[in-house]
Write a structure and sequence with these properties.
Layout: E1 7-8, E2 11-12, H1 30-39, E3 40-42, E4 49-51, H2 62-75, E5 78-81, E6 87-92, H3 97-106, E7 118-120, H4 134-147, E8 160-163, E9 177-186, E10 189-198, E11 201-202, E12 207-208, E13 211-217, H5 221-235, H6 242-249, H7 252-262, H8 269-272
Parallel strand pairs: 7-8, 8-9
Antiparallel strand pairs: 1-2, 3-4, 4-6, 5-6, 9-10, 10-13, 11-12
């Protein structure tokens, strides 16, 4: 995108050569229709739509920021940062949704990215309190899910929050799936692991804390979440949320998945003694050098 131009009485300035989009409609495009159902909602005041473009970990580079700013400028939209490492676009008119979808893609963001469902603290990469490297884990999770044939179709209907320790900077206790970083003592040393929380939620009416259903090694988390999402995808009806599926089928199937990965602790202990992003076997004292926690 070109540099932002000052606003004038005639509307937002446009730089010659700004990409023009094809006139073809997206009304029959499956991904676009999925995006409108998952990430677009009518504002409570009835004046337009609000959009939640997925922003993995809340990380935006200069090009993505410029692209979103240009989008807001050209359509007269409002932009704000949300508490869950995301961006909220306000005031979108329904007749311009197709252009907004294209512009989000052009900015370098994936409108349907699974990373938009992940909220995480930096973990041991910077925080001295954390036991695990949450950022490196999330990169591994996104890579696994996006390359897997069972790709999660509706990421906006499920929230996964990952904290590097019990302090819970990512608020893992009130997520659909919460992961709390811990150091697990085994015969040959320490293993980086996560305590799994299930079924938490928070909205304007009530807060519900999740239940702790087990512990799995850090190296098995991408496989575990892939299985969880595949199960959810098989069980859901239409755009049913994860919480709705959980309420219908109960905790037992999810506890069984945790148990599947818990049983492998001893059999693969050598492989499990490495955390994501580490270049040496895990040691409990390998923590960040900063007090910054998120």
């Amino acid at each position: 995108y070109p540099p932002l131009l000052p606003w004038s009485d005639d509307g937002p300035g446009r730089e010659p050569g700004l990409p023009e989009f094809a006139e073809t409609t997206l009304l029959n495009d499956e991904k676009y229709l999925r995006w409108t159902k998952t990430f677009v909602a009518v504002q409570k005041d009835g004046n337009g739509r609000m959009i939640h473009p997925p922003v993995p970990g809340g990380n935006l580079d200069a090009g993505q920021l410029t692209g979103l700013a240009a989008l807001a400028r050209d359509h007269g939209l409002g932009l704000r940062i949300t508490p869950e490492q995301g961006v909220l676009i306000r005031g979108a008119q329904s007749e311009f949704l197709e252009d907004i979808y294209r512009r989000i893609s052009l900015s370098g963001l994936d409108p349907l990215s699974i990373g938009g469902s992940l909220v995480f603290c930096p973990g041991s990469s910077t925080c001295p309190n954390a036991f695990t490297n949450c950022g490196a884990l999330c990169e591994a999770v996104c890579s696994r899910l996006q390359s897997d044939g069972r790709f999660f179709e509706h990421p906006g209907k499920m929230r996964i929050k990952i904290s590097g320790c019990m302090n819970g900077c990512s608020q893992h206790a009130i997520a659909d799936i919460g992961l709390e970083g811990i150091a697990l003592r085994k015969a040959n040393g320490w293993i980086p692991a996560y305590r799994v929380w299930l079924g938490g939620s928070a909205d304007q009416e009530k807060v519900r804390f999740g239940r702790r259903i087990g512990i799995i090694p850090s190296r098995r988390v991408p496989e575990f979440l892939t299985d969880i999402m595949a199960y959810y995808q098989r069980q859901r009806t239409d755009l049913e949320s994860f919480g709705e599926v959980l309420g219908r089928v109960g905790q037992t199937p999810f506890s069984a998945l945790v148990e599947k990965y818990t049983k492998t602790f001893d059999a693969r202990e050598g492989e499990l003694g490495w955390d994501w992003g580490q270049h040496q076997p895990y040691r409990r004292m390998d923590r960040g050098s900063s007090s910054f926690c998120g």
